[in-house]
Amino acid sequence: MTVAETARMHLLRLASEFGLTPAAEQRLAVAPGDDGDGLNPFAPDR
Q1: Is 30 within the bounds of a domain?
Q2: What span, in angstroms and rounded, lies between the C-alpha atoms of 22 and 19?
């Protein structure tokens, strides 16, 4: 097993422990945006 394969395996395991699965990512993609209150640096500008 190469270093890259080992790193990929560990990253996928870590992501699954935090609930980052393809299904969870799909829900995030369709979630409504932030209200832009300034506390979230990723909120859309209005």
Answers
A1: no
A2: 9
